[in-house]
């Protein structure tokens, strides 16, 4: 069996888990914003702070790479995972910003459904990141498939909601606002699926 006499820096896995937990905290904060639409600016500020924390974790990952000699995965793969997780939180923050700035009276049931899906996928990604250090694709397959299912459900929800906007007799400005909000929320689940697929591919490459 081939092995390296040099220790691998396992701190990356800790940082990945930190980023995943920050993602879930951001998702839960978005769900709270949507389901309890009060103190909107304060809640949006909270999500912005979590997005900034995600940026800091990504910076720590990249900074660690500059000092590392031996890494658990290829450097570009480590960077890709960090940036993919950062992308998810960026889109969560973008969703919150639109809800806060578009002067909506209250979120719709569809927006609440999206928020719940985002939380569900985030929890599955936490499971994936908790197993990443083991480098066994079978151990992340179930949560990865769960993320795929969430994204497929979100795709279908988006189609139904947008169709309803154009057939429900809403005024054009309302249609424009909610179409963009729905599309941004759905983009979060797209980013979550890309992350889950990316991690699976990296594990397979290193199996």
TrEMBL record:
Domain of life (superkingdom): Bacteria
Pfam family for this entry, one? PhoU_div
Protein family membership = Belongs to the UPF0111 family.
Q: What is this protein called?
A: Uncharacterized protein Yka (UPF0111/DUF47 family)
- Organism this protein belongs to: Symbiobacterium terraclitae
């Amino acid at each position: 069996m081939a092995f390296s006499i040099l220790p691998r820096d396992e701190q990356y896995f800790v940082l990945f888990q930190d980023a995943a937990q920050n993602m879930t905290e951001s998702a839960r904060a978005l769900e709270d914003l949507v389901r309890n639409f009060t103190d909107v600016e304060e809640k949006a500020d909270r999500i912005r702070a979590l997005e900034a924390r995600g940026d800091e974790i990504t910076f720590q990952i990249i900074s660690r790479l500059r000092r590392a000699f031996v890494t658990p995965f290829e450097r570009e793969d480590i960077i890709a995972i960090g940036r993919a997780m950062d992308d998810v939180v960026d889109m969560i923050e973008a969703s919150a910003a639109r809800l806060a700035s578009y002067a909506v009276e209250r979120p719709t049931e569809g927006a609440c459904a999206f928020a719940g899906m985002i939380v569900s996928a985030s929890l599955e990604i936490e499971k994936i990141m908790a197993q990443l250090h083991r480098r066994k694709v079978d151990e992340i397959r179930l949560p990865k498939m769960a993320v795929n299912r969430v994204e497929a459900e979100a795709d279908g929800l988006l189609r139904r909601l947008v169709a309803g906007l154009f057939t429900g007799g809403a005024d054009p400005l309302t249609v424009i606002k909610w179409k963009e909000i729905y599309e941004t929320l759905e983009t979060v689940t797209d980013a979550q699926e890309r992350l889950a697929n990316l991690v699976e591919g990296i594990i397979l490459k290193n199996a």
